Amino acid sequence: MPDSFMNVVEALEGLARYEGPWKALRDEAPLLRERVAELREREQRLDDVLMVALVGGSGVGKSTLLNALAGDHIAAASEDRPCTTVPMAYHPPGVHLDLDGWPCVARSALEHLVLIDTPDSDTIVRSHRALVERVLKDCDLILLCGSPEKYLDEATWSMLRPLQGLRGLVCVETKAEGSSRIREHWLSHMREQGFAVAGYFRVNALHTLDRKLAGSGTKLDEFDFPRFEAFLRDELTRERIARIKRSNAAGLLGKTVSRLSQLGEETAPALESLRAKLRDAGRDVSRFSLDQVRARLFAAPHLWRFALGREMSLRTKGFMGGVFRLSETLRTLPARLPALFPWSAARGSTGHRAASLLADQELFGEEANLASEAVLNQYRALQSEVHLALARAGFDPPPGDEGLKDFQEELNQRLALVIRGPARNRMVRAARLLTSWPVTFLLDALPVAFIAYSGYRVVWAYFNEPLLNVSFFFHAGTVLLILSGAELFLFSWCARIAAWMARRGGLRDLRVALAVPGLGFAAEMRTIEHADAVIKSVEHMNRTVQE
């Protein structure tokens, strides 16, 4: 067989081992394994003898035809009742066959041919019918025997229909008398059933048998029997036998791939509907997650002020920088205390985790679990709807909580990347700007100038005037406190504005991050993508076989 066909067979072998969630393909796998095994077997028998099965209803003359070909009574024949109970093989000497103990006659003059007489195809004995089906499965060419009284019996056709395009077929009218009354009708019916008939022969097998047994010349009309013998003896050469075998194998391969292609065509609309369902569910869970995170994290200004204050405290310089650092330490003391106590409930809260990520602090070995229970519950509800749609489309939903865990990890990862990435970067840029040297110089100018002036007054009074009284120091300290408080208030408000701007920018980044496809339902999408890949591979196989 061509290499392209063998590549298709190898691909079918892979599909025959399928144990995935696509129920229809999983149910098809046993038949695929059977078909692949038959294709492999036929590949090994391309240069072997041609297995020819004589098939037909009771009393049509199958055994008589075989006897006429052999010129002897090698098969029991009767016009009144079925005589053949087991298949019998008539083959050339030296041919070794594995036929489960069926009787064999090794004296055929028809080189490269094995003729197998079968039980009647319209038998009511179930074991006989099974034997006929076994022969039909292993044969390469069918001699369909019929008589004017019986040539279209339903029992025979029920066994032949599955073999459309898979076997070569020759029609043999075994009891010809006068002109043919059934030829055109029989051939027309064969074409309607999708069979390509390799030949049609009208013979009178009984006349031929009598003539051969008598050893005399032709006395009665044998019709096409000489031409029929010539067909079996001369036309079925090694080359034609190989073509018949290759054609049968190609037909089996094409029918197998066509069956899978039809399965893919039936499933494709369901896959498209499932994709739309997953897209809608993904958008819903993204919107809900955004609303929840915005309400719980991005609507909490203190987290952002805490993170910005920490960044500024690490970078502040000068007098006002020291004052700001001291005020931040006192202001954020309640928020920092849980980090010192492992047993603190607040230490494991979502706010603590978010603040730690914004401040680029370690989470003490904890996962950055920022997904709320409300988000997870919403995901479970949408997941149930998706799984129901998968089941209706013929797919097994992913097992357990695999999808929920993947969603939780993906959501936490996206949130962490946004908070620790662009959101934190905005914090760092704002902190660097607010603690830069020009800002530090402007903030320290008045307090330092006032401290210098007060110092100058103290030194001048020490050398030139009576010492300053206590009221001077009280008033100077009061003025310095007012100046420092005013500048600290202004500086804190600038920090608040910077934190607000960073929070707004972070919210935009979060909206973009959650809008990226793939948030949740990854396992369900893998199921659909795998089924789609199988359908595309089958389409490629189908094109290869047709070409």
Describe it for me?
64% of the residues lie in helices and 6% in strands. The protein folds into two domains: 48-236, Rossmann fold, CATH 3.40.50.300; 268-546, no CATH class. It is rod-shaped. It is built from 18 helices and seven strands. The protein starts with a helix and ends with a helix. The chain has helices at residues 3-16, 23-44, 62-70, 126-138, 154-160, 183-192, 205-214, 225-235, 238-298, 301-315, 318-331, 333-336, 350-358, 373-392, 402-434, 437-464, 470-515, 522-546, and strands at 50-55, 88-90, 104-105, 113-117, 141-146, 168-173, 197-202. Helix 9 runs antiparallel to helix 18 (522-546) and helix 16 runs antiparallel to helix 17 (470-515). With 547 residues, it is of the alpha/beta class. Strands 3-2-4-1-5-6-7 form a seven-stranded mixed beta sheet, sandwiched between helices. The longest helix is centred in the middle third of the chain and has 61 residues, at 238-298.
Layout: helices, strands, pairs:
Blueprint: H1 3-16, H2 23-44, E1 50-55, H3 62-70, E2 88-90, E3 104-105, E4 113-117, H4 126-138, E5 141-146, H5 154-160, E6 168-173, H6 183-192, E7 197-202, H7 205-214, H8 225-235, H9 238-298, H10 301-315, H11 318-331, H12 333-336, H13 350-358, H14 373-392, H15 402-434, H16 437-464, H17 470-515, H18 522-546
Parallel strand pairs: 1-4, 1-5, 2-3, 5-6, 6-7
Antiparallel strand pairs: 2-4
Structure at a glance:
Strands 3-2-4-1-5-6-7 form a 7-stranded mixed beta sheet, sandwiched between helices. The longest helix has 61 residues, at 238-298.
